[in-house]
Structure formats: structure tokens, C-alpha cells
Predict the 3D structure of the following.
Amino acid sequence: MAAKTLTIDGRQITAEEGETILQAATEAGIKIPTLCHLEGVYDVGACRLCLVEVKGTPKLLPACTLKVAEGMEVSTDTERLRKYRRMTLEMLFAERNHVCAVCVANGHCELQTLAYSQGMEHVRYEYTFPKWNVDNTHRLFGMDHNRCILCTRCVRVCWHIEGAGTKNVAGRGGKSQIITDLNQPWGCSESCTECGKCVMSCPTGALFQKGSTVGESERDRNKLEFIVNAREKKQWNA
Amino acid sequence: MILNDLLQLKEKELAARKKILLRCCMAAGCISSNSTGVKEQLEKAVAEAGLQNEVEVRGVGCMKLCCEGPLVAVEPANEMYVKVTPENAPSIISALQGGQANVDQTDPNAAFFTKQLSIVLANSGIVNPERIESYVALDGYLALHEVLNEMTPKDVVETMVKSGLRGRGGAGFPTGLKWGTVAKSPGSKKYVICNADEGDPGAFMDRSVLESDPHSVLEGMAIAAYAVGADQGYLYVRAEYPLAIARLQLAIKQAKQMGLLGAGIFESPFNFNVDIRIGAGAFVCGEETALMMSVEGKRGTPRPRPPFPAESGLFGCPTLLNNVETFANVPAIYRKGADWFAGIGTEKSKGTKVFALAGKIKNTGLIEVPMGTPLHTIVEEMGGGAPDGGKIKAVQTGGPSGGCIPAQHLDTPVDYESLGKLGSIMGSGGMIVMDEGTRMVDVARFFMEFCMDESCGKCIPCRAGTVQMHNLLDKILKRKATARDLAKLEELCDMVRNTSLCGLGQTAPNPTLSTLRFFRNEYEDLLQPDTFDGGANHSQTVTK
Amino acid sequence: MTNIATPVTPSPVAPAPAPHPSGDKRFKILEVHMKKHQFRHDALIEVLHKAQELFGYLEDDLLLFISHKLKLPPSRVYGVATFYHFFTLKPKGEHTCVVCMGTACYVKGADKLVEAVQENLKIKPGETTPDKKVSLLTARCIGACGIAPAVVYDGIVTPRQTPEATLEQINKWVQA
């Protein structure tokens, strides 16, 4: 493997031939925002957040699929790129129903984290408030299409790592959605191995483990009675 | 088959010619106006008049003046009958015997015909697309023979470079350079794909070429395959073109039977097979990487380039992808020479371009003109201007990826660079004329809606951006938008153009941007005064 | 397939063993077509074309049959079938009226044709009348721009249409 020398954000970097700009930058400690990228599965260059500027190329190119080349001069954090990244995130928020306050992923959501880190504080585009379903038919997992950003990480882990091919994208454009088998309820899937990789890979709260949603947090009302009895009647018979 | 067989076939076909030839258009447009019935009646009338030995009635492809179909041309009298019906068709035969034809005629010496220069459409309307012999009679497959026997693949690529031909699919990439790259790419398996997924609404050049002269495309593909070292070809045709598909299937079958396709072509070691792949209604599949996904039987979503198809294309192999018109140019270039071709057109845009002229214009149909012909010549002289004394307002080229050129710029020559400077593109050749009655914001919304519906949904800027831009255009049209919305629209146009994954998204803002450039007042007239919170979305904060 | 998955409700569609249990001959024809393509994965779109030609539309049972025969995940078959607008997963009406909405037809008033039919039949493009008689569809461009606006009535391209002419044809179907 031949080594390649290139410049990323003004820093001289060496990378191995065949590496992507994203890999090279990560090794050098330069952080490029990503969303559809997931370590371990192939990249699709779909979210456009990792777009970088390459000197001599008029087009912006995705760092996750762009291979390093000798003498390349890459900029990952220009004003223009920051603006486009904020706009991309705004569009995502306006596209479906992302309401952080009531989301299972609140606090550990990659979309939310990116919005903060990229300085996207509010959405200037009109929310479309589409009506998407929630599939709660699986005994372990749920899928809330309202929070899906169509990054296809779940599709890729299901196909590439688990090999089951349960998940795929159906429809196209803004009407695309992640499906299970023949667009069946997840609970009816014959191919799903219940491995849970799709849930692990989901950057938002679209795929979740049951029992973790805000609405599902169960309250044990008997405990109240126990406390009252304990405090007032001094009886600890739980 | 060897050269001698081919020449004998040609001689035999030429010897069978009759004194009078009636050419009856059997392309999709005329068939929909019942040219099949016209042809039947003509044949019947010929038989009844006992003229079978003197008159040939030949079903041919497009004769270009589609709005006047069904068309029947008479040779050698050089007459063209228009809007022929099965009822009045027999009178054309009576006219041959000195009677009177009660069918309207058009002047074959009108500018619509005389200003044309045919390379791609040279055989269109002359050969019978359903008989390979008819193509051979016009020197068909001679170029392939010469290429296989007298040229090395390297020579073939060099000739193409010298000809200066540029891709006719829209972007205008030099064809010779593309061929050279695929030829040099290492790999034992390579593919040649013909993009016949003519998706631009308002374009029908490729359909006409395939319906009228399928063998020229097959011959072009075979020459390209020899140049790059491919042995398998695919023709990706839209499902909306059933007649083109049927004629291609027939043409492939005939060529295989004669040993002009398949194994050992012209008894050389060169093998080339062509299969048809039928599209299923996805505009994005006109994009090369999406098209290859579709040929592989997958969802037609594009992938980032690099790697380019020339290095890693169909099934991961080096792949040459050109469109129908590009391939249709190929046989003529090798028959007549690269210098002859390079002598036509402008310095940077060589040869001719076929346009589908439609919309608010008197003569609609197909025209082929040398590159550099002014738009004015095309729409006013050849097209005859707007119908019913109307005035042309703009000409739209490049479909949903192109732009609207206003009337004051009609002196622009059609070549890749000039149209690009005006914010439009050459595109595949759709040319829609708009008159004073057309509202430009409406046109912009029409194309944006198209792109929104046709977005594959893979990348965010195109998937979500086209929705936002469409909503803003809709808001403007409904007189609910303010200057702030217009600014937002422009910002989105810039962003979607620069960040989308493929050509569909990158060019989706073009119709909006070009109408904003030349007809900004039409947008501004629809705006409402800016109020404090008018139009803007109330801030939706990301909460934690 | 593992047995770990215990579906909450029974699967709505049963896996298709060969030959198709319905005894419908069309499945056999479809299988021959798949065999012609050596059951190759890349023939999926060709096979879907043939299936739609035979059955008129692609229902779940049929898609599952194809996925089993081509040895593809059902999600992949469904994903492809819904990506391309030419494929339809719902049955069409007895008659179809496809209005071309290409640019040339649009500037010559194709939208008026759609409006007229929409109002007359009370259905939107892509829908079928409740009596399953007529489906209204729009096409992106059928390449018949020279004779715009064009409408395809039951597969027959008809040139230079007006709202009146379109309604006349529709009414013929409705009254038949």
C-alpha cells in the first residue's frame, strides 16, 4: 500500500492508498460531521453532511466515499459548507415530525447532537407535518416512521452484516419509507432474526427497543400505597 | 456474413426498387392518427389499380412534421401529403394515374425541411425500420465492417476523438474521451449501454430514432463495443415506448440472424450481444449510475462518482454509457470520416443536434440542424412562430434540468456553451416554445413538481429540498408569499444545486433560477408585503 | 430462517411453494419467463414487467412468489416494485385513461383534461372509480409531443384532445 500525502484544512496528512477522506481525517483528529455513515457497513454518500471542498474540483464531494489522492487539498469546514450543513439539518427537521422533547432518543440522538454542533437552532422552513405510522407489532422493537431520516443504516446492517435483508426502502422521493419484508407489520416478518442491529444502528429515535418510549414508561402505583402505609401507618408490609 | 454477402444484399435490395415510392409514416405519432389504416388503404388502392409492379408502399419512420400526420411522401415527384385519412388515401393513388388527390399537401421545400441537415435522422422516414435489408441498401453495417477489418480499437477511438462528437444526452462530455477511458480501463469484462430512457417531458428524439432507424443505433453500439473491448451491450428503453421496443427486438433478431450481432461478427473474432432492458417509469434512471442500478434489477438510485462508470460501472465492470443520438451518429462518422463530421457545427460543438420542437408553435415535430444554428432560425423560420398570430415569449430547452430562454435572446446559437451561458443546457433535445399566455412561475412550479415526484429519495437536499422549493413556488403562485420567501427560495436553489448527489437534484433548480433571471418581475408581482411574521415559520427550537 | 421470531399475529401471506397452489396457469408462465432469465437477480424488473402483463397488477402473493423463485428478500422485491411508477400494486379499472402531462401537453392544456375527468368522475389521478370501471392516470411524457395534448385510452394513443372529447370517451365507458 502506497502512502499518499494530502492536505486537510491546511494540515499535511499522510494516508494509505484506498482510504477515504473521512478515514484519513478521523485518523488525524479532524472531525467531519456525518449522519448516514456507519462504521462497519458500506457508505452510500446520501446525507450530504460530510461534503467537502476539494481544490480544483467545482463540485462538493462526500468525504465518506471520496478516496485520498496525492497532493489533494481538502477543506472540511468552510463558511459555505457550514451553511449547507445547517440547511440540510433544517430540511430534515421540517421533513417529518422530530419533536425532541417526547422522543426516546432525546439526549442521545445523532440528529439532535448534529443540530447543536452545527449551530442549527431553529428551522426556517415550513414543517410539513406528515402523518406517518408507528409500527409496534414486533414484540421487542418498534419503528416510528415520523422520526426516520432515511439514512438506510438499518437497511445496510440488516443486509450487509446480519444478511437477513428484512429491511429495505420502498417508494421514492419524499414518500420513501423503510419497510419490513413485503411492507408487512414488523411482528409478522418471517425473515427478521430479532438480532436488534437495526435498532442499534438507528441515529434517531425511529427504531427503538420497546419499553423505552416516553409513553411506555410504566408507573408502579402500588409503591405509592406502600409509601403512604409506611409513613402514616408505620406498616412496611410491601 | 462477409463483405460480399452484404454488398450482394444491398444490390438485390436496390434492384428491387420500383418506379414510384410512397413512404407512409409508421412512427408512434402518426400511428396514433391512424397511419396504419392509411397504409392499408394505399396498398389496397395500388392492388386495385394493378400498379403493384410500379408502386411500392413502404412503412417508414418519422418524417419529422409530426403535427401534420399522418404523412405520406411520394417519390420521385417530391410531394408530401399531410393529415391523410384511410378515406382519402386512395385518391393519392388516383393522382399517380393523372387524377386529382383530395388530400392536403405541404411544401417539401419549406424552411422546416430545407434548413435541416440530417446525420442522425438521415435514414429516418426513408428506410423501413422493420427490414434490415432496407438499412443495408443505404450502406448499413458497412462502417462496422470497415472498423472490424481495417482498424484497431485504438484507431477507432482516435477517429472518435478527432470527430469532436460530444455526448447528446445533455452534458456534452466528449465521446472520444469516454471511449478512450473505458478502452484503457483494465478488466476482461466490459459493457456498452445505450441510454434510451428518454425521460425529459417534451422530448421524443430518441423515440423517433429507435422507431425509425434502430439498426443505426445497433451498429453504433457494435462499433463502440469493438473500440472499448466489450462483448455485451444493453439497451435501456422506457416502457412508455412499446413500438420502439418492438422494433428494436426485431432489429436485434434480424442482425443476429445475419451474423451482424452475436458471435464472430463478419466472421471476425469479435463478439457482441445486445439485450434490451425495459425501464419502468423512473426519470432518475436517465442518470448513468441509477440506470446501471436499474439494469442490475435494483432500485434506480444513483451513487456518488467517483468511481466513474468507465472504471467501475455495471456489475462493477468498466462500462461505456452513451445515449441513443450519440450512438446514431457513430456509423456515419466511420462511413464518411472524422474530418467530414468535424467540419459541421461550431468550434466546440461538432455535428448536428436533433430537437423535438413542441409547445406553442405552428410546426411541431423533429428537426435536425447543425450545431450553432440560431434559436431564431429554429423557432421562427422552421417552426413558423407561435400559432394564431401569437408572440413567442420563451423557449425551454433541457427539460426539468434546463432553463427558459427569453425571446430577446433568440439570436443565441444552439451549442453547449452558449446555452450554458444563458443558464439553460442543451439537454437531450426537448425544445418547448411558450407564448405570451404562459406564466413563468407556473412553468417553474411544473418542473419543480416533476423533480419532486421523480426524486429517488436517497439524498436529503433533493428529497427534502425539492419539496420545500415546490411549496415556496406554490405559495408564491397563491399570492401568499413575501420577499423573504423569495430569498429563501433562492437560497434553497443554490444549496440543492451544490449539494445534491446526482444530476437530477443538481439541476432541479435550473428552471426556477432561469425564470427568476429573465422573468423576475413575474415573481415579484405575486409577492405580498412583508409583515413581521408573515410567511416565516415560527422558530421551532430543538429542545433538550 | 430461524424460529426465534414468534410473530404476534400470523403472517398474512403464506410462503409460495412450487407449483403455485392456486393452480393458476399464469404462475407457470411467469416461472418459465424467470427460467429464461436463469432466475438471475438482475432480471427482477423484467420479471415484474411480465408479472404485471399477466396479472394486471402486483399483489402481495405474486410478489412473494417472485421473491421465492428468484431467491431474493421480499423487502427487495417490494422496494423495487414501489420505486418504479410503471408497476402498480392495486388493481386497475376496466378501462384506463392516461393523460400525458409532459411539458408539450401541459402547455397545450393537459391540466384542463385532467381537471375535466377529475370533476366528472370524482376521482384523482392514480385512482379508480368505485365501480372499478375507469382508472385515471397521468404520464410524465409519452413522447407524442408533436400531437399534444395526447391521451392514451386503453392503450391507444389519441392525438389533440380537448376536455369535451375526453369526457365523451369516458362517458362511453361509464355508460357501457
Q: What stands out?
A: Chain A has two domains: 3-77, 84-209. Chain A touches chain B through 47 residues (CB under 8 Å).
